[in-house]
Write a structure and sequence with these properties.
With 807 residues, the chain is α/β, with parallel strands linked by helices. It has 4 domains: 5-209, Hypothetical protein af1432, CATH 1.10.3210; 269-282 and 301-464, P-loop containing nucleotide triphosphate hydrolases (Rossmann fold, 3-Layer(aba) Sandwich); 477-672, Rossmann fold, CATH 3.40.50.300; 712-794, no CATH class. The protein has 32 helices and 22 strands. The termini are far apart.
């Protein structure tokens, strides 16, 4: 048998040559897949059974590449047949034939995974439709081509009797098998098993094809946090007697002390409930580093750390803090999010063999989480956990035995919480992931999962800060004052009424102040009114505006300027939207917020007297009702009604009462909410309904952690000469005058940081960014004065609409 290749390349003369032998590729994929396979799993099959199944899947996944049809296509030798060169399906059929007499479910599983390893996962019903006469004709011609070399192929793959499996299987039996499995016996365990094995195959396939090394997990210094901040020691003092630093140390010591429990490794789901400003990030890091070391020592299992966060600014802050704490250069910390730098530092640019990594290898490392610690977005995390997309599922297998921290979980959509709670529970059950949910407001994610989906199964998460209620009662930093009946004017005039009757009476010029609105339009109007108020009173307080109406490139600069003004006692005023509710480390003297979800209100309170200044105890956050209709549109009528009822019970809520306030609110919401979407998505996971033409079935492919909308357009703001250059480079990339690697290295971040999302009704008269790109519009530099305000962002006064949009 002549040399058979899996991949080809162009040489310097532009000639195509075989770059990797197929037998070496299959060997490399198998080594990587088995190396990534976790020994500690919870499936019905034993680890040995699963490893043997995985070996069969890998051995046969590229069987079709042995045909002359694929080799002619690969090396561009005539004749080339684009139908006969397909290589995935025949391998699936041969794997099925080799397994069907021993275990039909394994046979179907192998066929399914091999069939789809270059595409998305699809429903069994959609797969069955591919078993037709046209498919049979292609496979039979490929079988005829392989007959003369199949014995040699079997020897290469170390698979005996391969010739006996080289037949097109009985289609009726295949269809019955998939229908029977899909309609009667599919389970949530099957979902995790399919995604896990599929992930092992496609990740290893792509790593080997790109010559990207698998990253071996390193040991991490379990005392890294101690070395930076000192050893946390429990104290004999009462919690109420502790200073700020003592309280942080006390909380960290309490959390870490859980590791002394001899049964701690039997727990897989944890919560860490603590007030804002208590140092949860470093407390959690200390715990998980020590937990990782304990797992390695006692169980002999390596654990990757995965830290999921909702917003880019928090991801970047956390990435910086992790890097400052874990100083060992051998430990790799990877940030995987929209603006991630794939190129890394210079010393990260080499492979294990000393050769410089190319662009595709760096992309592959990022997309497959080749690192000890991964700090990523909720979008990446949850749309991998609940998804069918090939690009995302490459990293699904790295959930196995991972220590997963999910921070700011109160930002998750309420209607998704039962689904997410159930998915996380089964992730811990089948892939033995250890999961820690962190929050200050304790949403009932697992309680809702039990009630709505799990049918009597109890999750029983372990709380790490065992006396968190006592810790909450210590804080008297802020107090919430509902002023819900104060505004009586028509909603168009309420902003000015707020300034006249509330702001002017509650605020004094020596106090820094945060004002948060539910909508961009209201926030811009309020900012203008505040500016006028300051001018009328001849006050010099600096005023700032912050929302997603401003390009990302300008947001961090504004936050830093506010921080400096607060430090210098200039008493700045910030008007903002919900963008400040989490991850913005600012400390105001007081604040005002439009009515909204109670947990969101408490998050805003976390930006007031954040540092627990004893001279500013009970710093006020006033809650006003600018527009009931708009609030109901944004958050839903139920949320508005329950928030209003909860806040109407008292004239003042002191900080020790926040936990009770939010718990009662969530209890009411849980009782009265409909979680049908969560139940339908979970049903799709159980029934392996990855795809469906019936949208009412909520197929897995439709799941998104952030609600998608076609009501917005991406708009590039050409605000200066640099932005003009960035736009020009984007066009050159579209035209292939510069390659993607050069654009990504030098221009991608700058490009994305000049883009904002704008409601469609405001973009009708904007041009496309270039004649080739339909999805991105542009505000050109010459139109900047009319269309974009450098302080408040995109000009929304150019059009009017009765529709309310929120960011």
């Amino acid at each position: 048998m002549n040399k058979i290749y899996s991949h080809s390349k162009l040489n310097k003369e532009g000639e195509i040559f075989g770059s990797k032998e197929l037998k070496l590729h299959i060997k490399g994929v198998k080594e990587k897949a088995l190396n990534h396979f976790s020994e500690n799993l919870g499936f019905e099959y034993s680890n040995e059974e699963l490893k043997e199944l995985l070996s069969i899947i890998v051995d046969f996944h590229d069987l079709g590449k042995y045909t002359m049809y694929f080799q002619n296509y690969l090396l561009q030798n005539d004749p080339i047949d684009l139908l006969l060169k397909q290589h995935a399906q025949i391998g699936g059929f041969i794997a099925y034939n080799s397994l069907t007499l021993k275990d039909e479910k394994k046979a179907l599983l192998a066929l399914y995974i091999i069939f789809l390893h270059h595409s998305q996962l699809i429903s069994f019903q959609e797969l069955i439709q591919k078993f037709n006469s046209h498919s049979k004709e292609i496979i039979n011609r490929q079988i005829s081509d392989l007959e003369s070399i199949i014995s040699a192929v079997g020897r290469e793959l170390q698979r005996d009797n391969l010739k006996s499996f080289l037949i097109y299987p009985e289609v009726s039996k295949l269809r019955r098998g998939f229908k029977h499995w899909g309609k009667k016996y599919s389970s949530i365990q099957d979902y995790f098993l399919i995604n896990y094995l599929f992930s092992l195959l496609i990740e290893s396939d792509k790593l080997d094809a790109s010559d990207t090394f698998s990253y071996p997990l390193k040991k991490i210094d379990t005392a890294a946090v101690d070395k930076r901040f000192g050893n946390p020691l429990k104290t004999e003092k009462e919690v109420s007697e502790l200073s700020n630093n003592e309280l942080r140390n006390y909380c960290r010591a309490t959390v870490v002390s859980n590791l002394n429990d001899q049964d701690i490794l039997k727990h897989y789901i944890f919560t860490l409930t603590a007030p804002t400003g208590i140092g949860k990030t470093m407390t959690a890091l200390d715990f998980i580093l020590k937990l990782k070391g304990k797992i390695e020592y006692e169980l002999g299992v390596d654990s990757r750390i995965i830290y999921g966060l909702p917003f880019i600014n928090i991801i970047e802050q956390s990435l910086s803090e992790y890097q400052k704490t874990i100083v060992d250069q051998n430990v790799k910390i990877l940030g995987h999010y929209q603006y991630a730098n794939i190129f890394g530092d210079k010393d990260e640019g080499l492979n294990d063999d000393g050769a410089e990594k190319n662009y595709h290898q760096k992309i592959m490392e990022l997309d497959t989480w080749q690192a000890d610690i991964v700090i990523t977005s909720f979008v990446q995390f949850f749309e991998t956990l609940i998804g069918n997309r090939n690009k995302l599922l490459k990293k699904f297998n790295h959930f196995a035995n991972a220590i997963i921290v999910l921070d700011e979980v109160q930002t998750l959509r309420l209607d998704q919480m039962p689904l997410i709670g159930a998915a996380l529970f089964y992730l811990s059950k089948y892939l033995k992931s250890r999961i820690i949910l962190m929050t200050a407001t304790r949403p009932k994610i697992f309680e809702l999962a039990e009630k709505e989906i799990l049918n009597g199964i109890k999750i029983k998460p372990r709380e790490l800060l065992t006396n968190f209620e006592d810790v909450f009662t210590v804080f008297k930093r802020t107090a919430i004052f509902p002023l819900l009946e104060y505004l009586e004017a028509d909603k168009e005039e309420r902003t000015q009424e707020f300034i006249n009757t509330i702001f002017s009476k509650k605020w004094s010029c020596e106090k820094s102040c945060l004002l948060v609105c539910n909508t961009v339009n209201r926030s811009i109007d309020l900012y203008d009114k505040v500016i006028n108020f300051l001018a009328d009173k001849r006050l010099n307080n600096p005023a700032y505006y912050l929302s997603t109406n401003i390009i990302p490139a300008d947001r961090m600069g504004k936050i830093e300027a506010i921080r400096v003004d607060i430090k210098n006692n200039k008493a700045p005023i910030l008007v903002a939207t919900q963008v400040v509710e989490a991850g913005v480390d600012l400390d105001f003297d007081m604040g005002f917020r439009d009515i909204g979800p109670i947990d969101s209100i408490i998050q805003v309170a976390g930006r007031i007297n954040r540092n627990n200044d004893q001279n500013r105890l009970s710093s006020p956050l006033y809650i006003v009702d600018f527009d009931k209709q708009t609030t109901e549109f944004i958050y839903g009528k139920l949320t508005y009604v329950q928030a209003y009822k909860a806040l109407s019970k008292q004239q003042k809520f002191d900080e020790p009462e926040y936990l009770k306030l939010v718990n009662e609110y969530f209890d009411k919401i849980a009782i009265t909410s409909s979680f049908s979407n969560s139940r339908k998505y979970f049903e799709s996971m159980q029934k392996l309904r990855y795809t469906s033409d019936i949208k009412e079935e909520f197929p897995i492919e439709d799941f998104r952690i952030i609600e998608q909308s076609d009501s917005y357009k991406a708009v590039f703001i050409e605000k200066d000469e640099e932005a003009t250059k960035v736009r020009e480079m984007y066009l050159l990339k579209i035209l292939d005058d510069i390659d993607k690697e050069e654009f990504d290295r030098n221009w991608k971040l700058k490009f994305q940081q000049h883009i904002i999302s704008i409601p469609n009704y405001l973009t009708d008269d904007l041009d496309k960014i270039n004649e080739y790109e339909d999805n991105i519009l542009v505000v050109r530099k010459e139109d900047l004065l009319n269309r974009y305000n450098l302080i408040t962002g995109f000009n929304r006064k150019s059009k009017s609409s009765n529709t309310t949009f929120v960011f």
